[in-house]
Amino acid sequence: MPEKHPSRRYSAELESRFRDAEGIFVLSHPSEAFQKDFPESIQDMLDRMTEHPDNVPESSWRFVSPKSLLDNFQHSMRCLFSDCFSLLNPEHNCEYFVSLLTNISTRVLLPGSTMRISVNTPRNMQLVTSHLLKGTSLKSTIIGVVPDTRDPDRDTDDLSPLHSIGTAGLAVQVVGSNWPKPHYTLLITGLCRFRISGLLKERPFPLAEVEQLDKLEQYTPSFSQEETGADGELGELSQKFYQAALQLVDMLDMSVPVVAKLRRLLDSLPRETLPDVVASMIRTSNREKLQVLDAVGLEERFRRALPLLTRQIEGLKLLQKSRKPRCFPCARVLERKVQAANMPEAALRVCLKELKRLKKMPQSMPDYALTINYLDLMVELPWDRHSKDHLDIGAARVLLDNDHYAMDKLKRRLLEYLAVRQLKTSLKGPILCFVGPPGVGKTSVGRSIAKTLGREFHRISLGGVCDQSDIRGHRRTYVGSMPGRIINGLKTVGVNNPVFLLDEVDKLGKSLQGDPASALLEVLDPEQNHSFTDHYLNVAFDLSQVLFIATANSTASIPPALLDRMEVLHVSGYTQEEKLEIAQRHLIPHQLEQHGLTAKHIEIPQDTTLDVISRYTREAGVRSLERKIGALCRAVAVKVAEGQKVTQQEGSAQEQRDMAAPPEMPVVIDRVALKDILGAPPYEMEMSECITLPGVALGLAWTPLGGEVMYVEASRMEGEGQLTLTGQLGDVMKESAHLAISWLRANAKIYQLTNLVGGPDPLDSTDIHLHFPAGAVTKDGPSAGVTIVTCLASLFSGRLVRSDVAMTGEITLRGLVLPVGGIKDKILAAHRAGVKRVILPKRNQKDLEDVPANVRSELELVTVGDLEDVLNAAFHGGFARAAKGQDRPQVTSKL
Ligand SMILES: Nc1ncnc2c1ncn2[C@@H]1O[C@H](COP(=O)(O)OP(=O)(O)OP(=O)(O)O)[C@@H](O)[C@H]1O
C-alpha cells in the first residue's frame, strides 16, 4: 500500500483530533499580521455612527486595531499582492483553484478586505479539512471565494450556474468547534479577482480553472494624481474617488488611532485598490458589493463604487447636522460662564482643559454628561461671591435677646466673638461648638448668629455620617461620584462667607469608607482651610471666610483632635421658670402662628403652661414642651374651623341646631381642658413620694440628654455574703458599689448596722442585691457612690431615707466625697423632680454659681466632705453614730 502523502496524514490526524475536541481550536497563518480588524473596525464604526449615533462608547472602538498591524498594513498589502500574483503565475503551475462557495446573503469578499466565513456545508467542510489544515498549522493555500448567487430555495445539489467572478483569498485563521455541530470559521483576506473559465469537478469540493483578472502591473504605487500616470476619464474618476475618501475620513474623529492610520493609508495605497478597499468598509449591501466585484474594468469599478461612497458621506453629514444644535451651544454657554465665574487661576485652567475635551467629545460618550455636570458645578461655585457683613453689636444684642430667652453665658460669649469680628474683619477662627442636651436652642442660636451678621445660613447634619466622601466628595473616576457636603452647601448658598452649622458632630461614625471626623479636621482648621480640596473638584477652594459653628450633645464622643480645634460652649437645660418664659415669649406665639390661630382664638394661662412643664414633660430642653403646646393649638384649631363652618353654612335652622354650638372665643385652656386634650399627666406623682421602704435612695445622674434623677434599690436575703449588681452597670459603677459595701462593713459597728439576724457584720449569712432601675439603659461613672452608700445604710439600719433628698458624689475607701461633673444639669433635674434637698461634694461648691438663683433659693443645697455628712443629711434627724467605745473592734472584710 502506497505511503500516504504527509499533508494528508496531518490532516487525517487533525480531523480525528477535531472529532475528539471538546472545545474550540484556532489555527492561524503566520501572516496573520495583516489580517482583519482594519476594514472591519472602520465599518463597525460607521455602522454604529449611523445606526445608534447616541450609543457609541468611545472605548469600544478606539483601540480595536493593534498598532503593529496597521503599521505593516501597506507593506503587507504589497507582499500579499506580489505573493498572490506569483502564485497565480501559470509558471508556478497554480492555475487551478479550489473554490469556497459563500452565501451572498452573508457577505461578499472584495480584494484588499478581510472577512469571516462560516463553514458548515459538506463541500466547504471537505475543502477546509483537505486543503487548509496541515497538522497544527495552516497550509498557505490560495482559495477562490465565489459568491453563491443561486436561488436558495432550489434544492438541487447542482453547482451550475456558478457565479463567474470570485476573489482569490488566503485563509489566515481557522477556528473550529464541534459544538453544537462540527463547523469552522475562516478568516480570509481577499487578494485579487479571478474569472472561472471552466469548472473541473464539483465534488468533494469545487475545483475550477481560472483566469486572474487584477494584474499587479496595472497597479501604480504612487502618491499623487500626476504620478499615477492615469489620465483621461479614469484619472479624473480616481482623483474624485480619492478626494471623496479623504472627505469621509475627515468626518471621522481623528483622535481615534485607527482613523489616523486610515488617513495615512489612503495616500500610500495604489489608487486602483481604493474602490475595493473603501467599498468593503462603508455601509453597502451585499448586492452592491457584488456589483463592485463584478466590475472587472477599473473605470467601471470606480464608477460603481463612487455613488456608494458619496451616499455614506451624505448620511454622515445629515447626522452631524442633526447633532450640532444639541452639542455645541451648550459648550459655548459653559465657556462664557467659566470666563465670568472669576475663579482662581488653577481652577480656570482645569475648566478650560475640560471645556476643550468636551468640545471634541461625541455627545453619546458617558464622559460627556459627567464633564458637563462638573463644569456646571465649577461655574456655580461662589469663587468670589460673598454677602456683605452688616454687624452692629447693639443690634446683635437686641436680636439675640429677642430670639432667645435666658442662655446668658452663651450670648455673652457670642457678643464677644462678634465684637472682635467687627474690629478685625479677617478674623481666623475660633470655631465655636455648642454642647448641651437636645432642644435647648443650639441650632436656633446658630441661625440667629447668621441673622445678626446678615449672612446666609446652611445646616449640615452630620449625625450618622460614616463615609469620609460625605465631607470630601468622591473622585470623579467613580460612577455616581459627587462633591461632598461642604462644597454642595457652598453651591446651595451661593456665597463664600455663609454660616455653616455642623449639627451633631458627636454623632459622626466610622466605617470601612474612612473616618469623616478626620476629613473635618482640615475643614475646621483655620490655618489650612483656605485651600480645602474636595476630591470631586480636585482644585482648592478657600473656606477661610466660612463661619463654622458645631453643635453636639456631649463632648465624650468627639475625637480629641477635632475637639481641640473648637471652643466648647456648654448650654445646659432650663429651669421651670425659664421654660415658662420661653413658652410665653416664643413657643406659644410660634405655635399659634404655625396653626393659623391668634390670641382671639386661644388663651393658655400661665398656670396651664406650668402644668404642661411640670406634669406633662420632664426634659432639659423645650422641644417636647413645644410639641405639647402644638397639640393644644391643634385641638383649638378644630373647634375654630368647625365654628367657622357653622356660621358660613346655609341651611335649615334645624340643621344648625343639630350641630354643636361653637365654643366661645377665645378658648381658655384650663386644667380640665388640658387633661381632655393631652390625657392624664404622665409625671403626676412627685418622685420624692416614692420612697416608702428602707433600701431606696435617690441619686442624680448626667446623660447627654441632660441631668436625671435615678433611684438606687437594695435588698438583702439569706446567703453567703454575695453582692449582685443589675441595671447594665459599667466597671466604674461596679467598683463604686464594692467601695460602698467595704466602707459600710468597716464602719458597721459605728453606725450600728446589722445583718439579717442582727449580727454585727452586714454581710454575714446575707446576700445583697443592688439594682439601678431603667435596666435597659447602660450606666457608668463614679458619681453614684454616695447614693449607694446611703441606700445600703438605709437597708442595713432599717431606716427610711428622706423622700425629698437627692445626691451625687464620688466616694473613696476612707469615706471622703470627691467632686463630680454636670452639677448644674443635675441640680436642674432635681428641681424638676420636686426634690427639696440636694447633697453635693464640697469641692463642687464653685459650680453652684452657674445654677440660676431662683433654683438655688428653692433648693437646700448641702455640700459634704465625707460620708458621715452624707448620711446625716440623707436621714431624718441625722444618722447617729454609736456612743464612744462601741466603735471597736472593726469587722474584718470578707470581700
Ligand atoms: N432660649 C430659647 N429661647 C427661645 N426658643 C428656644 C430657646 N431654646 C430653645 N428654643 C426653641 O426650641 C426649639 C428646639 O431648639 P433647637 O432645635 O435649636 O435645639 P437643639 O439644642 O439644637 O437640639 P438638638 O441637640 O436636638 O439639635 C426651637 O424651636 C427653638 O426655637
TrEMBL record:
Localization of this protein: Peroxisome matrix
One Gene Ontology CC term in the entry: extracellular space
One Pfam family per UniProt: Lon_lid
Motif (Microbody targeting signal): 893-895
Name the UniProt record assigns to this protein: Lon protease homolog 2, peroxisomal
Enzyme Commission identifier(s): 3.4.21.-
Stated family: Belongs to the peptidase S16 family.
A single GO molecular function term of this UniProt record: serine-type endopeptidase activity
InterPro entries assigned to the protein according to its UniProt record, in alphabetical order: AAA+_ATPase, ATPase_AAA_core, IL-34, IL-34_sf, Lon_bac/euk-typ, Lon_lid, Lon_proteolytic, Lon_Prtase
Gene symbol of the encoding locus: LONP2
Record key words, sorted: ATP-binding, Hydrolase, Nucleotide-binding, Peroxisome, Protease, Serine protease
Keyword ATP-binding: yes
Any single GO BP term: protein processing
HAMAP family: lonp2_euk (MF_03121)
Enzyme active site: 783, 826
Gene3D superfamilies in the record: 1.10.8.60, 1.20.5.5270, 3.30.230.10, Interleukin-34 (1.20.1250.80), LON domain-like (2.30.130.40), P-loop containing nucleotide triphosphate hydrolases (3.40.50.300)
Lon proteolytic domain location: 691-877
Task performed by this protein: ATP-dependent serine protease that mediates the selective degradation of misfolded and unassembled polypeptides in the peroxisomal matrix. Necessary for type 2 peroxisome targeting signal (PTS2)-containing protein processing and facilitates peroxisome matrix protein import.
Classification via SUPFAM superfamilies: P-loop containing nucleoside triphosphate hydrolases (SSF52540), PUA domain-like (SSF88697), Ribosomal protein S5 domain 2-like (SSF54211)
Organism name: Muraenolepis orangiensis (Patagonian moray cod)
Record-linked CDD domains: RecA-like_Lon (cd19500)
Binding site for ATP: 436-443
Domain called Lon N-terminal: residue spans: 98-313
PANTHER family: ATP DEPENDENT LON PROTEASE FAMILY MEMBER
